[in-house]
Write a structure and sequence with these properties.
Elements: E1 28-34, H1 40-54, E2 65-71, H2 83-91, H3 100-111, H4 119-124, E3 127-130, H5 133-145, E4 153-155, H6 186-211
Parallel strand pairs: 1-2, 1-3, 3-4
Helix pairs in contact: 1-3, 1-6, 2-6
Length: 217
């Protein structure tokens, strides 16, 4: 597991709960979604895999959590993770060790190929995490056309202990947006990683409890 701790801030509000599993006989599916699927969602995918693997939560089968990522656009289709995102992750220790969590993360980073979220992914996902309110709106519109429960689409930063309290699933606040580091500097990628780590630290235990993973500790 990466050594950098996430935020331990506590606003005093109850931690939000992920939606119940659609099918307890299979893995609980989580999809991280940003614009092109090369920065924010890809980083969040890698970090949550790290946290779950370090807690011995399996990625396949019953009692598992299967994490993937996608974009709302196909503009980066087939592209690997942004090199700056890869560098920030590597400098933080992700995917660089020999333990099971590091190997799992290295596979996520090394095999990443950006794609637009498909209708099939939306239908089978238990939890879809949008990086911005605009992504949330786009995903909700598609979910409604597909008769997918829109309550399964949540803002990524709803699970951030440092985020504002006032947002709801039906009215996400722009202040819950994760800024796009693609337009910025390495410092912006580091800031994004800080947010991703806080959310992953808060989300992983709830997911493990939800699926009843036997390795949870």
């Amino acid at each position: 597991m990466n050594a950098r701790p996430g935020s331990t801030a506590n606003t005093g509000s109850p931690a939000p709960r992920p939606p119940a599993p659609r099918d307890p006989s299979g893995p609980y599916g989580v999809v991280m979604v940003c614009t092109g699927n090369i920065c924010r969602s890809a980083m969040a995918h890698a970090v949550l895999v790290d946290r779950l693997a370090a807690a011995d939560v399996p990625a396949v089968g019953p009692g598992a959590v299967a994490v993937t990522s996608a974009g709302v656009s196909d503009e980066e289709a087939g592209n690997p993770m942004d090199p700056r995102a890869r560098l920030v992750l590597a400098e933080a220790g992700y995917g660089t060790g020999t333990d099971a969590a590091s190997r799992a993360v290295a596979a996520v980073i090394g095999t990443h190929a950006a794609h637009r979220i498909s209708d099939a992914e939306l239908r089978r996902a238990d939890l879809v995490l949008a990086m911005t309110a605009a992504h949330h709106r786009a995903l909700t519109r598609r979910a409604e056309r597909l008769n997918v429960d829109p309550a399964r689409i949540r803002m990524f930063r709803e699970f951030d202990p440092d985020a504002p309290d006032a947002a709801t699933a039906s009215a996400p606040l722009p202040s819950l947006d994760v800024p796009d580091p693609w337009y910025g500097t390495m410092a912006d990628f580091m800031d994004t990683l800080d947010v991703v780590e806080r959310v992953s630290d808060a989300l992983a235990p709830g997911l493990a409890k939800l699926v009843g993973a036997s390795g949870t500790r």
